[in-house]
Amino acid sequence: MAKVFDRNDSSVVVVIGSGAGGGTVSRELAASGVDVVCLEAGGPTAEVVTNASAMFPRLTWLDRRIGSGDLPAGFPIWSGKGVGGTTQHWTAHAPRYPDYQLAPSRYFGGLPGVSVIDWPVPQEEMAHYYALAEKSMGVSGTNGWPKLPESNNYRVLAEGARRIGLTHVERSNMAINSVAQGGRPACLQLGFCVSGCAVNAKWTSANTPIAQALRTNHFELRDRSFVLRVEHDERGRASEVVYVDAGGNLQRQKARAVCMAANSIDTPRILLNSDSAAFPGGLGNRSGHIGRHYTKHVFAIVTAIMPKPVHMERGTDNLGAVLDFIPNDPTRGYAGGFVFEQVSFDPANLSSLSRPGAWGAEYAEQLRRYDHYTGLLVMGEDPAQESNGVTLHPSEKDQYGMPVPVVHYADHDNSKRMRSFGIDRARELYEALGSTEIYVGPPPPATHNMGTCRMARDANDGACDPWGRSFDVPNLFFSDGSPLPSSGTSNPTLTIVALATRQAEHIRQLMASKAL
Amino acid sequence: MNALLDRRRMLIGLLALPGMALLARTGLLGRYALAQTEPLTAQHIDTLRRIAFLLFPYPELGQAPYERVAGAIAAGAGNAGTRALLDTGIADLDARQAVTWLELDERSQVAALAEIESGAFFQHLLQTTKMVLFNDPEVWAYIGYGGSSMDFGGYVNRGLNDIDWLDDD
Ligand SMILES: Cc1cc2nc3c(=O)[nH]c(=O)nc-3n(C[C@H](O)[C@H](O)[C@H](O)COP(=O)(O)OP(=O)(O)OC[C@H]3O[C@@H](n4cnc5c(N)ncnc54)[C@H](O)[C@@H]3O)c2cc1C
Ligand code: SF4
């Protein structure tokens, strides 16, 4: 029998969201005997079929969000809704941040208009929790698990890089089983990672931490529970979470502590919607940092048609990476670094992402050579800027009556220079392989969302302390991508899981010392 | 017609995932209940089929894949906003010359489409055609996309790493 907690039980920790961070903090707490209720807006994990367009509406957050600045206006963010959150979609590229990227002020500090801070977590401590995260996620390339095998699309990237003199090309550490472990099979190279892995070779929050939490006697998962507000008591402590249940009824769950894990867009959205006389700017927002400093990586999608077949669809979407451009080198005309990541698209997405506005006989003829296409992402570090972030729309409401979030993101000039440098190198790489048909896609919706409730040493600089605990509300925690103070050049999820693991340990200590 | 929705469609019509999001919201990909409306005329459906063909012409495939695109667009027309978009869009194409658009020769048809390509009607058809045509197994086979390899045990032992031209020079 699944555990059920009373809504008036004020001894439970309430976790909002069941994605990477929410799943991890839930499992870590429940496994050590702390009672947890996880409220998830979406439904149970969708059954996976190997068709990208069929899976998209089942996995994706389609509730209205408004993009502004350099984000697509109607669909600024690509994230997941449902048990497992965005990890149902993720491609499981799982690198650590390079050490020196925990101190981005060293290379970004001189840029105009930025709000960059350094990480308040010592590098040795990050290394410890990275190791725990890699173990719990089964990251291939760590802990004696071999890396995933080379694919055609990987070899195209590697050979192109070699031909233009690049030397740091590797198959990345991936949270995908290269051998069976953790009760999950080895990867079959189906190549549908973005649409959910039909065999669960890919780590997701649903198939690992949430499943593990459900096996404890200390965890209740309430899906189709859309959180509107977090309320506080007269002492200013988070005391109740208000949500709409599966039947459309308004409910309240009492709480001993609240972990925000609704992702970097909806965590600040919920808190900004939780304003009160004591917190007129939103719960935990006395310093004004909730919803600011949003980072998402500098992105460009480059696709190219090769002289001969590649079959990019065969195998994991996102295996290879070129690391030569990670080190900061101001002589390139920008600060910070970027990577190339191998990427593949199914025909429907390719047709829109390669040349979005194109149609007619010439483009049809190119797409007929689908098997000749290859692709990469330019993915670079973007500096935090105070004005990038999440606000509530003054009048527009969603189906639950909650204000729609407006996500604003304007590229820094540094990011524009970095992107065009990266695109030029990508062109050279593909030209070196004999391609004459190379295309840069449209700005994609953001998939890596960070920084909107960032952690800092000092309350003047961020929303939460180095363990993700709110500076203003002592039993309110940030457990998802929102506390990450900078984006680095690494995909964020391994870091989210590492920080959530560390935070859970801290919460247990606070509880043991009766501080919580 | 819902003006806001229409403006949004124009803004997002140029992007793949936003296009998917729109189709899901308007019922093409999702399982949304469709309102009862008069079905599109055969002439309308024929026009849609012909437009889909001219967007991505693969004469060797015959008409069947394009009929499936037209069918999917027609299915989406249960949504009142989409229906109005189709009705006015086709009427506009037909009103540009003395004969209907379908009666034009191929070059003139393409030229007429090029004139309306920045509009909401055209963008809707372009997005939908991409999503439906390039998800059609017959098209997949034709353009060399392997699709789901689930039934074959994945690509792990089936051409994952069989590229043989990288050492050519
Ligand atoms: C296509 C794609 C590919 C990606 N590939 C990679 C990759 O290779 N490597 C990598 O590191 N990262 C990747 N990512 C990013 C990765 O998925 C995210 O970094 C990660 O899932 C974020 O974790 P999170 O806990 O912050 O939020 P999420 O995983 O987004 O979870 C948030 C959860 O909160 C729920 N929620 C939101 N609002 C509410 C509310 N009001 N009430 C209740 N519940 C709510 C949501 O439904 C969701 O389930 C990818 C993302 C996408 C879209
Ligand atoms: S490539 Fe591997 S991890 Fe990705 S969907 Fe297929 S089996 Fe799953």
Structure description:
- The complex is a heterodimer of chains A (516) and B (169).
- With 516 residues, chain A is of the alpha/beta class.
- Chain A has one domain: FAD/NAD(P)-binding domain (3-Layer(bba) Sandwich).
- Chain A contains eleven helices and 17 strands.
- Chain A has a six-stranded antiparallel sheet, with helices on one face.
- The longest helix of chain A is centred in the last third of the chain and has 20 residues.
- The model of chain A has no long low-confidence stretch (mean pLDDT 96).
- Chain B is mostly helical and 169 residues long.
- Chain B has a domain of 107 residues.
- In chain B, helix 2 crosses helix 7 and helix 3 packs across helix 7.
- The interface between A and B is large, with 62 and 53 residues.
Q: Which helices and strands appear, and what pairs or packs with what?
A:
The complex is a heterodimer of chains A (516) and B (169).
Chain A: E1 13-16, H1 20-31, E2 36-39, H2 52-59, E3 66-69, H3 105-108, H4 123-137, H5 152-163, E4 169-171, H6 206-215, E5 219-222, E6 226-232, E7 238-244, E8 250-254, E9 257-260, H7 263-272, E10 298-305, E11 320-322, E12 338-342, H8 347-353, H9 361-368, E13 373-380, E14 389-397, E15 403-409, H10 413-431, E16 437-440, E17 476-478, H11 493-512
Parallel strand pairs in A: 1-2, 1-9, 2-5, 3-15, 9-17
Antiparallel strand pairs in A: 4-11, 6-7, 7-8, 10-13, 10-16, 11-12, 12-13, 14-15
Chain B: H1 3-12, H2 16-26, H3 42-55, H4 64-76, H5 80-94, H6 106-115, H7 120-133, H8 137-143
The structure holds flavin-adenine dinucleotide (FAD) and iron/sulfur cluster (SF4).
Flavin-adenine dinucleotide binds next to α1, β6, α7 and α11 of chain A.
